[in-house]
Specification:
- The chain is of the alpha/beta class and 196 residues long.
- It has a single domain (16-162), classed as NAD(P)-binding Rossmann-like Domain (Rossmann fold), CATH 3.40.50.
- It is 40% helix and 13% strand.
- It has eight helices and six strands.
- The protein has helices at residues 16-26, 44-56, 68-76, 95-98, 123-126, 146-153, 161-177, 183-195, and strands at 38-40, 60-65, 86-91, 104-107, 134-137, 157-159.
- It has a six-stranded parallel beta sheet with strand order 3-2-1-4-5-6, with helices on both faces.
- Helix 1 packs across helix 7 and helix 7 packs across helix 8.
- The longest helix is centred in the last third of the chain and has 17 residues, at 161-177.
- It is globular, with a radius of gyration of 17 Å.
- The model is unreliable at 1-13 (pLDDT under 50).
């Protein structure tokens, strides 16, 4: 049953973005407690990712952005929430020094979406990623994004935003209908839609 409470996103009730983000990571059956996620961007989607990473047990989270003022505001906005994790903010220029040790890299920016061509990290920088790093792009179209294609070439395990979209939709349906959602049917419908 849906419990109503104050959420770190400023909403009431269950947040489907968090549940959708978590589902493909939980399916990997990994222990995430020693992982320090690198989050690209500091907008609304990044907030859901921070909460999700805290729920995975990550003790420290690194958030990268282009505006130092907005990064500081982002960090300060968490002060009244007991997430059980430390949020470090960094200017985009510091990202390359973190990539060689990355275990989970999440793109929450619109860069790479059909209407925002490109990749948030250049191919040369992605070459610093260790093999088997999990690279997660919240974007679900195009599939794959250039970012994920380049990451896969480096041996990364890639996750696109389609599964997050499916899972957050399933959670929303379960809240509304109070019964299990047909996740496999939903996934196939989305795959067919984006293939058309």
């Amino acid at each position: 049953m849906n419990t109503v409470s104050r959420s770190p996103l400023g909403w009431r009730g269950t947040n489907t973005d968090i549940a959708g983000f978590l589902a493909p990571l939980q399916a990997l059956k990994r222990d995430w407690r020693e992982t320090e996620p690198l989050i690209l961007g500091n907008g609304g989607a990044a907030r859901a990712v921070v909460v999700g990473c805290a729920q995975l047990g990550c003790r420290q989270i690194h958030v990268f952005g282009r505006s130092w003022e907005k990064l500081q505001q982002f960090q300060a906005s968490w002060q009244s929430f007991a997430l059980g994790t430390t949020i470090q903010v960094h200017p985009w220029s510091e990202l390359p020094q973190f990539l060689p040790q990355a275990q989970l890299l999440v793109n929450t920016t619109p860069i790479g979406m059909t209407s925002h061509r490109g990749t948030p990290i250049a191919a040369q920088a992605l070459g610093q990623l260790p093999r088997h790093c999990v690279v997660y792009d919240l974007i679900y179209t195009p599939r794959p994004t250039e970012f994920l294609r380049l990451a896969a070439e480096q041996g990364a395990l890639t996750i696109d935003g389609l599964e997050m979209l499916v899972q957050q939709g399933a959670v929303a349906l379960e809240i509304w209908l109070d019964c299990p959602a047909p996740v496999a049917v939903m996934r196939q419908a989305l795959l067919a839609h984006f293939a058309a």
